[in-house]
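Worked example 2:
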Amino acid sequence: MKAITYSRNGDSSVLNFVDRHVPEPGRGEVRVKVAVSGVNPTDWKNRTGATGQIAFDEVTPNQDGAGVVDAAGAGVEGLAIGDRVWLYLSQHQRPTGTAQEYTVVPAEHVVRLPEGVSFDVGASLGVPAMTAHRALTVSEDGPTRLHPGALEDKTVLVAGGAGAVGHAAIQLARWAGATVVTTVSGPEKGALAAAAGAHHVVNYKTGDAAAEIRAIAPEGVDLVVEVAPAQNAELNSAVASTRASIAIYANNGGDTITLDVRPNMILNLRYQFILLYTVGDAALKAAAHDVNNAAAAGALDVGEDAGLPLRRFPLADTAAAHDAVENGFVGKVLIDVH
């Protein structure tokens, strides 16, 4: 089979397009014939060593993907050869991810794709949608699971609604019944956030974002899905309701946050940091289940009409796919494998 590998940390030039033996699944594992591999920032950061030095002699990148179950090891239940599936955290603590024609994955990280849901959607779910799910389920007064009506009467502020996680957060929050407000840096991104389903789009570069958000939510927003906590700390404290939560999943705009104690104390604000790798099995299973239900309902569509433009690459051009994500492509980068 064809595979992408690297044996040292570095820029995308360390990626190699190679031939490898088709792997065999062990106990509790399934082999998936990969149709589409999804690329996330975590994939190029792992490759560069930004998240830690390479832990294996050889690594095949990419956490997310979708395809068809091709073989199953002993002890696997609930999955059968021929099942269309999506994968999450495929390369977490393992040497091989989805940038190859066949990949072996623990069965608990393999989810059946609902009927009618495309491989493109499946390859776009893992990291972005499951991170968004976690961000939407950590508030003190909010739900721990998502379903239609779960966020009814709640106002959710999604920072950076044109990004992949922001896009999924808008879609999931809307599906769960929230009023969704998002901030963007320009009209093009605003159009994407609106296409994703945001009820209100605020351009933070052209006006008083806090005043605009307060006009929409006079009592304040109940939950913030935050991509740039340092940059937005002052805004968040200005628009948050009592007992609101700020769920932080990235460090765009700065690595250090400065918070004024008294205003945050008065509102009993909660700051929740999120990294999918360490949320725990219960949170992962809950997210996979709820995200799959949302996908089945058509709530997590991708493509420009759904607010998430797609950019595609063949497997041999995985380096260019990584570069596109690293260089800030607005949308979702997918690799066509089969």
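The chain has a mean pLDDT of 97. The chain is about 30% helix and 25% strand.
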